[in-house]
Amino acid sequence: MDKLPYEFHDDRREIRFDRFDLPAPWINYLSNGRMHAFVSQAGGGMSWWLSPMMFRLTRYRFYNMPIDSPGFYVYLRMTDGTVWSPSFRPCETPVDFREASHAPGYSAFTAKKDGLTATLKLFMAQDYDTLVWDLKLTNESGEEISCDVFAYVELSQFLAREENILGYYLKWNTRAVFDEELQAITYAYTAWMHPRKDESPLVTFASDAKISSFCCNRDLFCGNYRDERNPVEVQNGRLSNTNLQGGEPCGALHTHVSLGKNEAKQLHFFLGVTEGALSDYDKAIAGAKETLTALRKEGAVAGQFAKLQSWWADHLAVYQCDLPDEDAQRMINTWNPLQSVQTARYSRSISSDASGVRGIGFRDTAQDMLAQVYRKPEWATEMLWYLASQQLEDGHAIHTAWPEEKRPPQDITRSDDHIWMVYLAYAIAAETGDLRFLDKEIPFLETDLVTPVGSATLWEHMLRGVDFTEKHLGEHGLPLILFSDWNDHLGPFGRKGKGESIMVSQQHILALRQLAELAEARGERAEAFDRLIEKQEKALEQFAWDGEWFLRGLDDEAKPIGAHTQSHARIWLNAQSWMVIADACREHQLEAMDSAARELDTGMGLLLNTPGYPGWPSKEAAMVNGLPAGYSENGGVFCQANCWAIMAEALLGRGDRAWKYYKQIIPNEVIKKVGVERYHAEAYAYCSTMLGKDNEKFGWGCVSQVTGTAAWMDVVATQYLLGIRPTLKGLLIDPSIPAEWDGFTVERSFRGCHLTIRVENPDHVQHGVKELSVDGRTLDLARGAIITDDRITNCQSAIVHVTMG
Ligand code: GLC
């Protein structure tokens, strides 16, 4: 195998690249929670404020070539006219050395040429909505160096969809001018049609270095039939000092730098926003001035960077592990929780693949927040309350919402959306031990999807969800598929309104179990839930078993979906794993999971179902909405579904197999097998899908970054594999690990106490705890290996010893 183009530096939580023409942009997100950007290993990227759909600040050419452009570009023009850049793009001029790195919250690009080293570090200021470009130039050439530095961004018309369709009209509503007093380019998009015109920001692009020239007109900056890779104004060594009133805007700033022998200089560019350019221009200008004055102060940038680093340090410190497995440890400690923050922020909306207009999915966000519960429970609670406000009075939830865009949500009734809310609520209750958030009053949505109607507590919202499922059962007593269940492409089996979903039945059971536990903890009776569980279990016992595995459902004609008699999609992964997760049909669980191993495990992930339906023009292609065989929900390795298989094996105590499944879809592991060209996507972030065996590009990672795999891998690794799992009764210690491990350690905060959990595995078992002590006091394991609150109340830290066996 060729040398990999990257290396992990775990001590710095960093990935470093030494090759940049990767098969796709490998991105990193920069954010302070309000202003956001992503940037690739090559320097390409995009920025937005609050929403990538409403307030897109800079452009990125999705789907088009040249890929991964434009970005946040710095050009260095030497006196002989050579132009190069710290990042691989824009110039691609050969340099003596080049490196790039991503780490939580920042990316850095270094290049050396003829004794001059340029390092550009990009990060989002934490107290100001500003992308900081921290540029350091070091002269080691032994001679004086003088060069011209240009910084460049292409500005966008804020409204991403409208820009795509109507940009040729709307570009006359752009205004970018150099403000002498601010020493900054100021940009406003003035279109009357902006739905949030009042907030519409003033964008500024400025520096703390002396500006020698500027340009606000993209087309002039680049020149006719050129682009940002060879802009004519940089070539000329001076920008044209052009303002722009209508047209294609950009921010280009020029400063001159002289460096003595061995001298280093640091300068900064600031791409920032201030709210309210259109509603109160003077105020916006004053706000921009305040920000720039603050950021131009000595030490301000370093201060903002330190703040960013401490945000990540605190966030990650909540759970850290020490394992005899480098790849797993790296994912669990750094890259997986990093990605989980991104999906919690961006749902499935924005990446170098995803164009930023999708809003948030109800089921998606409910799952994404599961990975925030143990690190930021308040954030997860806020999101849960918001989701509940997107539920209708009949108990079903809308499917897609645009909270930031304040657009009406989209309601195509799925059978599962509302159910995911319960798991999030349970997880929050288990993490915090505090049930009061369930009593929060939250309105329902009117069927017009805009007006809030009658409110109820979150608890009652969840009961409405149960009602909805109960009122939408099919002839066999199993929940109807409706438009689809979790599997977006299951719908064709239930288009006539009669198809039933076994996965939703399993999900319903899990939700009912959790509600029963919550009810008891609230001092309420749980019998009603128990009766419904029993009823649903009976239906599954009667209809779900196919002889070697569980069916996925019944179609409109009551024919089984996922049966051995079928030629396509004979077995579906989720139906097997979720039976274990729901803890139903116990007698067949092991056999079902063995069948999944035999039929679905490719050694590089488990297929969602197999064999895939043949693609178009076969008639059967309609059953999977035309997806080609081997892709995604049609015989692909759907990574999120792999998480549930891992979870199921862990619950069954089969640590060896659970870890095999876990390890084999860690991107870096896949890349070690198939190489970067084949895998395509980031080595440090999960993909939604890998192409399955039915596809000639088996192993190709599709839709990276914004996927439910992030949160589920996070939850599954920390709570089911390492097995440190909050429950309503306390913290359950239930590891499922490879038998060969001697043990591992986890540092984890729980209900205000910092726990150091040392797990030893002297008997080399895969599962089972035989001894547990907290600060030297041995616990009685009769009621499970659970650290109850009384063991850790009022203590800031405790040492937990666990002996497996
Ligand atoms: C995509 C969707 C998610 C769905 C899954 C399976 O990831 O975002 O909502 O559950 O596909 O179809």
What do these coordinates show?
With about 800 residues, the protein is of the alpha+beta class. Strands 1-2-9-10-11-12-20-16-15-14-18 form an eleven-stranded antiparallel sheet. Strands 6, 7, 8, 13, 17 and 19 form a six-stranded antiparallel sheet that branches. It has a six-stranded mixed sheet with strand order 21-37-38-42-39-40. Helix 15 (about 640-650) packs parallel to helix 18 (about 710-720). It is globular. The structure holds alpha-D-glucopyranose. Alpha-D-glucopyranose (GLC) binds near residues 348, 361, 363, 364 and 488. Alpha-D-glucopyranose (GLC) binds near residues 363, 486 and 488.
At a glance:
The chain is an alpha+beta fold. The strands form ten sheets. It has an eleven-stranded antiparallel sheet with strand order 1-2-9-10-11-12-20-16-15-14-18. Helix 6 packs across helix 18.
Strand count, sense and barrel status of the largest sheet are: 11 strands, antiparallel
Q: What is the CA-atom radius of gyration, in angstroms?
A: 28 Å
Question: Helicity, in percent?
Answer: 25-40%
Number of strand segments: 42
Q: Structural class given helices, strands, pairing?
A: alpha+beta
Strand order of the largest sheet: 1-2-9-10-11-12-20-16-15-14-18
Low-pLDDT runs of 5+ residues are: none
The general outline is: globular
Bound molecules: alpha-D-glucopyranose
Total helix count? 19
Mean pLDDT: 97
